[in-house]
Amino acid sequence: MEFLSDTVVLSRMQFALTAIFHMLWPVLSTGMAIYLAIVEGIWLKTRNPDYYYHARFWSKLYLLNFGVGVATGIPMEFQFGTNWAPFSEAVGNFFGSVIGFEASWAFMLEAAFLGIMVFGWERVNPIIHFVSTILVAVGANLSTLWILTASSWMQTPTGGEMVNGKFVVHDYFQAIFNPFMAVSVSHMFIATLETSLFVIGGISAWYILNNRQPAFFSKALKIALAAAIAVAPLQIYIGHLSAEQVYYYQPSKLAAMEAQWDTIPAGQSANWSIVALPNEKTEKNDWEIAIPNALGYLLELKQQLSAPVRGLKEWKPEDRPHLVGLIYYSFRIMVGIGFLLAGLMLWSTLQWLRGKLSAENIAQQRWLMRAWIFAAPLGYIAVDSGWIVRCVGRQPWTVYGLLRTADSASHVPATNVLVSLTAFAVTYSILFIGYLYFGSRIIRRGPRLDLPIPGVETKPAVDTTPGEFVPDERPVEAQQ
Amino acid sequence: METLSYFLPQVWFGILALFLFLYVMLDGFDLGVGILSLTASTEERRGILMTSLSNVWDANETWLVLMGGGLFGAFPLAYATILNALYIPIILMVFGLIFRAVAFEFREQAQRKLFWNFAFGAGSFLAALGQGFALGGVLKGIQVNEAGQFIGTTWDWLSWQTVLVALTLIQGYVLIGSTYLIWKTTGELQETHYKTAKIAAVTTLIGAILITIGTPIFYEYARERLFHRPQVYIFALIPLLGVLFISLLIRSLFRKRERAPFIWTILLFLLTFVGLAMVVFPYIIPTQITIYEAAADPSALVFMIIFIGALIPVMLFYNIYQYIVFRGKVTGGHYGE
């Protein structure tokens, strides 16, 4: 257990743990905020009370999610200083500024208007409320913009140079619009939207399957599906662009993603492995199943590579990413989920076109509904896998090619980090279980269809009996 | 360029002081209400306490995130060194904030509320304690090498002086929390907080007196600064004004005013803040690192003024708007819808 006395390793574990957990919540707040704005917009346009109740119901889950998101996000900001002080000092000029932008442009906007969005239904008029909801969505998504800008800069640092161990910026806009920025922001933006759509769709499918207000929830499912028709294929395309960029800018990461030990020269074709057992000691894959000549098609949409794919052996062991197996499989999990979700979207669209998703028929689509429930957590797994590929694949650098991870960590006693790491592990587990438990409770209670509708005096002509309470016997993980 | 590298750090010192003051004032009453919730006699009362914060706590806490981000960008060396040196107080604060944040949502959904009640109250206390030790630790000074990096040890921030600062800050939060509740509630609950406000006013005053006397005795840099003409006249003015404000505060409490106690408390906070800033300036880590040494590149500071500074009026505007939307007394005890 040598790593227990290694501050750098422990700090990395702490950052990885807090980041992997934290990511689960903003993924939903940024995507779901857009969904809430859409639903509220439809309500204002059609005045159909169902959409108003959808806005009310999903915003409860949103609020729960946001609370845990804030709670898990605050440690992220402070960790740069507590655990990565040399890094903070070296790159504060640019990286620190961008973290500041996130707080001022994005988080403040979201936090301030969230209060009005959730508690202000009877205090402001519907138009101001709608504007508030839109501003929450804008704020949440500006967070994606700035955080991904900061992260992309760590991958492809441009706009300045290292002078005496400090990054000096020559051109801020060049640093902001670094090579990875546009594609990374889009990839993450679509990822949050896609994850949220399948969570909303999956929860709706659960109600439909349990025959609780199937007509009401078929509306939510169809909005999610309609959006997924655009989003799911788009994500596959942007994911491809992202991989191309890695191929070009971070060859050592690409080599790890593909567990490619030997260089393939330009002009040749190469096999693409689906499953392999990478072995860092022997510097080869112990076994693999590969598709002949496929790598060129994947990277450049043609058989012969126009540039070499460099193998891991080209770098000295201390200059290349480790945990090759983790990077390799995380990448495959992410891609696999992307295709699975697109497939589910296609299947559902087909049934929609055949008229099987109408309010009367939808409850008969039992396997389709089960598939949506199964798909609900997949987006989260894909997002975290993607981050593992992105950040573990960047090693041994914190700022690619400029600053090593080993030189980035604070000089704090390993014991301190071990204690805080353990405390984070315990606390985040409590939060995770609590979130699933209380989230599933909100879901089991179902929407309240007796709330007053702003601007409407009489009671609405909808079914106001709350759905029957059905205790959920399944394990907690399956309930979301 | 010379004047720029002199002027810009001062602008950023001012902006960060504004963020920190807004944070201490707003999350101050927020954390204070949290600590007071430990004394709430019934679930109904605790519900009202939490409802009084429901729509503002996250925006209030954002000023801390903003302060952190601003410090990171504008004074990276100070950000790195302070947080590195104060590892334990910062972690304490972070865990306090985690538990109180989730307690808002989890408590409302939970059938057995005991654990989350405790998480909310104790989390608020822990966050305030961590902040108090961090403040005390910075005032005490941080050991650094020539490059300004932290070279001290894990427990440097802990001494009886920092304990005093931490306890006083907690009392201050309880005071501003009590006066906020006087403003936002009615009836018996309001009566209770007239009492807690009186007690907290006295304990805060004792702490403030001890710190005011102790600082020049124990910290040489403060002594040099304080007893130097002409500053000594300004510094003499601060305790005098402090006594005036605290008398007005106590009078307003006895006369059962509803808003005045909160306003006098804010003025007291402001006064303390100005006093501290004057003792510390131009250092950001007292007698070790000045704001000029810790500042980022002038270009970075300009860049941040454009992207963050320009937004300050907008942020203030919509935060005030939000307080206007939710003005008035808190009635129900239900967080959520």
Any overview of this molecule?
- The complex is a heterodimer of chains A (480) and B (337).
- By secondary structure, chain A is mostly helical.
- Chain A contains 13 helices and six strands.
- In chain A, the strands form three sheets. A two-stranded antiparallel sheet of chain A has the order 1-2. In chain A, strands 3-4 form a two-stranded antiparallel sheet. In chain A, strands 5-6 form a two-stranded antiparallel sheet.
- In chain A, strand 1 (160-163) and strand 2 form a beta hairpin.
- In chain A, helix 4 packs across helix 6 (181-209) and helix 6 (181-209) packs across helix 11 (366-375).
- The longest helix of chain A is centred in the N-terminal third of the chain and has 40 residues, at 7-46.
- Chain A is globular, with a radius of gyration of 24 Å.
- The two termini of chain A are 36 Å apart.
- The mean pLDDT of chain A is 88.
- By secondary structure, chain B is an all-alpha fold.
- In chain B, 78% of the residues lie in helices and 1% in strands.
- Chain B has 14 helices and two strands, in the order αααααααααααββααα.
- Chain B has a two-stranded antiparallel ribbon.
- In chain B, helix 1 crosses helix 7 (160-184).
- Chain B is globular.
- The model of chain B has no long low-confidence stretch (mean pLDDT 88).
What attributes characterize this protein structure?
heterodimer; A: 480 residues; mainly alpha; two-stranded antiparallel sheet; 6 strands; 6% strand; B: 337 residues; 14 helices; 2 strands
Quick structural gist:
The complex is a heterodimer of chains A (480) and B (337). With 480 residues, chain A is mainly alpha-helical.
> What is the helix/strand order of chain B?
HHHHHHHHHHHEEHHH
Shape of chain A: globular
The portion of residues forming beta strands of chain B comes to under 5%
Q: Tell me about the biggest sheet of chain B?
A: 2 strands, antiparallel
Within the largest sheet of chain B, what's the order of strands? 1-2
Number-wise, the strands of chain A total 6
| Share of residues in helices of chain A | 55-70%
Estimate what percentage of residues of chain A fall within beta strands: 5-15%
* pLDDT < 50 runs, ≥5 residues of chain B: none
Please report the total strand number of chain B as a whole number.
2
Please compute the radius of gyration of chain B using only Cα atoms. 20 Å
Work out the helix count of chain B: 14
Largest interface: A-B, 70 and 64 residues
Q: What is the succession of H and E elements of chain A?
A: HHHHEEHHHHEEHHHHEEH
The span between the termini of chain A is 36 Å
Mean pLDDT of chain A: 88
Approximate helicity band of chain B: over 70%
N- to C-terminal distance of chain B: 55 Å
Q: How many DSSP helices of chain A? A: 13
The chain-level mean pLDDT of chain B equals 88
Structural class of chain B: mainly alpha
